[in-house]
Specification:
Elements: H1 3-10, E1 15-18, E2 32-35, H2 40-53, H3 59-70, H4 72-90
Parallel strand pairs: 1-2
Length: 91
């Protein structure tokens, strides 16, 4: 999943992550870059790109997206909705 990515993004920082089955769910061009796994060239290129394009990222928007989707309140609401749906199905 990548909790460390969410921690960094909660601070408004863009991230670089590999396409490995988790980060694809929350990293896109607005908050970082996804790269091919096992490619040192891809890591180097994305780091250079991030340095050059750093001002294009909006720290407030990056942070707000984490709050909206992964905060305790947001996760708690989603969990309660899931419990309610299961309760409705079981009834």
């Amino acid at each position: 999943f990548g909790v460390s990515y969410l921690e960094a993004m909660a601070c408004g920082l863009p991230c670089i992550a590999t396409r490995c089955g988790g980060p694809e769910d929350f990293i896109d061009g607005s908050n970082g870059y996804l790269i091919k796994t096992g490619s040192t060239a891809a890591i180097s290129e994305s780091m250079t790109l991030l340095i050059h394009d750093y001002d294009k990222f909006d720290p407030g928007q990056i942070r707000q997206r984490v709050i909206d989707h992964y905060s305790v309140e947001s996760a708690g609401t989603a969990l309660m909705q899931a419990y309610q749906q299961v309760g409705n199905i079981a009834s």
